[in-house]
Specification:
Length: about 110
């Protein structure tokens, strides 16, 4: 059985790794939105993908904010709760990004 200190340390390490991933994926989402503006705006799928990727960027940025909050807290129960929220938001953003990628591939193909 692991001690609360080792779980806290593991949680902080996980958050530090996730912090860079969220920043990269938020930037990638915004870059793809800018790239999509080069396509024909008459396509409805481009607008849908833009909206989905904007949601992804917002979710990843929210994760970044919550990660900083979790890293700064000294209360382990609060940090554990924030980690669960961050994990859920990250999974939602990643799922939305994957769906947007499939819609983009379907539109181009």
């Amino acid at each position: 059985m692991s001690s609360p200190d080792s779980r806290s340390h593991w949680g902080r390490e996980e958050l530090l790794h996730l912090l860079s991933v969220c920043g990269t994926l938020a930037g990638l989402s915004i870059t793809i939105i800018a790239f999509m503006h080069g396509f024909d705006r008459a396509r409805a799928a481009v607008t849908v993908v833009d909206d989905m990727l904007a949601l992804c960027a917002a979710l990843f940025l929210t994760c970044i904010y919550l990660i900083f909050w979790a890293l700064r807290t000294a209360r382990t129960p609060l940090m554990q709760r924030l980690i669960r929220i961050i994990d859920a938001l990250f999974l939602a953003a990643l799922t939305t990004m994957t769906i947007a990628a499939f819609v983009t591939i379907y539109t181009i193909w």
